[in-house]
Amino acid sequence: MISSAMRWFLAAGTAACLLATAARAAEAPSTVQLRGSSSLMTIIQPLAETYMASHPGSRIIVSGGDSWWGVKSVIEGTADIAMTSWKGMPADLTDLAKDSQVTLDHTLLARAAVVPVVNPANPIRDLGLGQLRELFRGGIVNWHAVGGLDLAVVVGSENSRSGTFEVWNQRILGSGAVITPTAKVLQNHELPRFIARNKGAIAYAGQEHVGPGMVPLTVNGIAATPETIHDGRYPILRDLTLIARSDAPASVKAFIAYCDSAEAEAVIWRFDAVPMATGLSAKGSAK
Amino acid sequence: MIHSIRWRARAALCFLALTISRPAWAGADFDDMLRDLRCARATIAIIGQGDCPQEERSIVVAGSIAMLRYTRALKEEFEKNSGDLSVSYGGGNSISSLIAVNRRAVDIAAISRELKPKEQSIDLRTVLIGRDGVAVVAHPANPIGNLSRLEVEEMFMGTQPTWPGQNGQPVLPVHVFVREENSATRQSFTELALEGNDVTSAAEIMSSAEDLMAAVAKTPGAIGYVALHDVNAKVKLLSVDGVPMSDSTILSGRYPYARPLYYVTKGAPSPLEGRFIEFAVSPEGQAIIEQVGALRVR
Asked: Is B21 helix (H, G, I), strand (E, B) or coil?
C-alpha cells in the first residue's frame, strides 16, 4: 500500500526525529530516582550522598513509599530504581510487569534481620516463633502467659504494603493466621513513640531501626548477628534488593553498581545488614 | 480518463503530504492511517467532528498551597507555546486534591508530601517534579544544635514547653513562631512535621518568612520554620534527627522535612496532561522549578 516514495519520506522523517531525541538526551544532567522500602532507604540515603559528592552534576533522589510502591513505579516508569526489603515479588506486580512488557533486573545487596521489639520495662528478652505467632495474631493478650508481667499486650505492626510487614506476615503468621485486628499500624518514625508510650508494647522492625528506648528480643534463643544472618540461623531474614528496568540508562546502572561495590559495604554493615557480595570475609576491615 | 488521473494524482499528493507530517505512521497499519486522516484537525474543520474524540483544550490542576507557586510559574511558560491549551489551578491541600483526582473531579493533583500507604493504588501515578525542604530555625545563640522529630513535634504543639536541658544552664522556655493560615510553608510543616495537627495556641503568628526570622533572631527561646528558598543568615538552622538541611540531604531524603513536589494522575495521563507533566520535567521546566526556589530532580 505504501509506495517507495512515501517510505523514503517516512524514513527521512523518522531519522530526523531520532537525531533530535539523541541530542536532547546528551544535554540532560544525570539524575536517578529511587522509591521503595523505608528499611533499605536508610542504607541507600548515605550512599546517595557520597555518590553525589564524588560525582558532581549527578542527582540521586530517594523517596520512601514501601517496596510495593517502588516496584510499581519502576514498572510504569515514574521511578528508575525500586528499593525492596521482602523475600519475593508479589504476584500482582509480576503480572503488571508482564502486561507492561517490562523486564526487571534484580541486584541483591544484602540480607538483614527483622527483630521483635519491646519496651525496656518489659522483662522478657526472648520469644519462640510459636509465641510470637500467638502474640501477633491475638491468641495471647497478657504478658504473664509467656512468663512476663501481668500486663496487657499492645501489638504494633506496619502497613500491609511494607516489605517488612510482608516478611513478618509470611514468617511469623504464615498462611493460616492473620495479624490481630487490634494491632496499631505504624509508620517507621512512629515506632519509637509507640514503644515508649506502651509498657506492654510488642512490635517488629528491621534491625537497623532499633533505637534507644526499644529492646530487641532474641528469637528461639538466637540473636540477630552478622554470623547468624549470614548462615541463616536467625530465623527472620529479608533480602535488600535494588530493582530496575533492564533497559535503564547507564547512569541508573552505575549507581546500582556503586551500591553493590566494596565501597558501599561499610555503610551496609553500619546498618546491621550483611552484604551479599562478599559476606563475612570483609567484616573485620569494614567495621 | 484525464479527469480520473488528476483525481488520483491529487489524492496521492494529499496522502503523501499527510504522511510526511506523521512519523507515527512508520509502524501503523492501514486502518490506523485512515482514522488519523479522518480525525486530523483539517479534516474535522471540513467535514465535521463525526465520531472523532474531542481534543482536550484545558486541564484542571488542584493541590497544596506550596504547589501553587510552582504550577503557576510552569503554566505561564507552558501556555505561551501551547496555543489555545490552558491550565487552571485550584487550591486546597494535598489530601483534598488527592480525593479530587481519584474521583476525576480534577485532572492532576499537585501534592507536596509522600502518599500515605492507604492512598497508594495501582492506578495512581506520581511524577516527581522537584524537591525542597522546610528548615527548623532557632535564635543564633541557642546552644542546641539538633532536635529529634518527636521533640520538634512536641515543642510546636506545646507539650514540651522548654528546650532540652543543658547541664548547669537555666531552663529556656520555648517560644513558638509560625506562619499565617494560608501560608504554603505552614501547610507543608503541618503535613511533614505535625501529622496534620494544630500548633499550640500560644504560637505567635507571623505573616512573612522575613518577619518570622526577624522575630526568632531576637527571642532567645524561639523556634520557628522557614522554607528552603526563604532562609537567611539571621537565624540558626537546626539539624533534625541528627541530619542538617542541605541540597544533598534534601535530595537523599535523609533530612526529615524534605518536601517532595509531585503531579499525580489517575491512570496514565491524557495527552494534554502528559504534555504539561512532560514540560514540568523537561530541562526548561526544571529550570523554572529552580528559579522558583526548589531543587531540580531531572
From this structure: coil
Listed by number, the residues of chain A in 186-225 with a beta carbon closer than 8 Å to a beta carbon of chain B are 187, 189, 192-193
- Local structure of A183: helix, strand or coil: coil
Instruction: Nearest by CB to A45, from B114, B252, B295: name it.
Output: B252
Selected residues 233-252 of chain B with any CB under 8 Å from a CB in chain A: 248-249, 251-252
**Does B48 reach chain A within 8 Å, measured CB to CB?**
no
CB contact under 8 A, B19 and A28: no
- Residue B23 distance to chain A (closest CA, Å): 6
Residue among A195, A235, A238, A201 at smallest CA distance from A218: A235
Question: DSSP code of B50?
Answer: T
Report the alpha-carbon distance of residue A115 to residue A204 in Å, rounded: 5
Facing A78 at nearest CB: one of B126, B248, B251: B126
Report the chain B residue with the minimal C-alpha distance to residue A66: B117
Strand extents, DSSP E, A89-248: 104-118, 126-127, 154-158, 184-186, 201-206, 215-216, 218-219, 237-245
* Residue type, position A258, single letter: Y
Place of cell 540531604: B249
What is the model's pTM? Answer: 0.79
Q: Where are the alpha helices (DSSP H) in chain A?
A: 4-27, 38-54, 66-76, 91-99, 129-137, 163-168, 191-197, 226-230, 250-259, 262-270, 283-286
Alpha-carbon span A38 to A85, nearest angstrom: 9
Rounded average pLDDT per 10-residue block, chain B, 298 residues: 62 59 53 63 64 74 90 92 80 87 93 89 95 96 94 96 82 95 92 91 96 97 96 96 96 95 94 93 96 94
Q: Where are the beta strands (DSSP E) in chain B?
A: 58-63, 86-90, 108-111, 124-138, 146-147, 175-179, 204-206, 222-227, 236-237, 239-240, 258-266
In the numeric block, which cell numbers belong to residue A46?
A: 548515605
Q: Least CA distance to A45: which residue of chain B?
A: B252
User: Residue A211's pLDDT band (boundaries 50, 70, 90)?
Assistant: confident
List the single best residue of A32, A55, A69 to mutate versus B (max B Cβ within 10 A).
Answer: A69
Coil/strand/helix, residue B218:
coil
Chain B residues touching A11 at Cβ < 8 A: 26
For B241, which residue in chain A has the nearest alpha carbon? A189
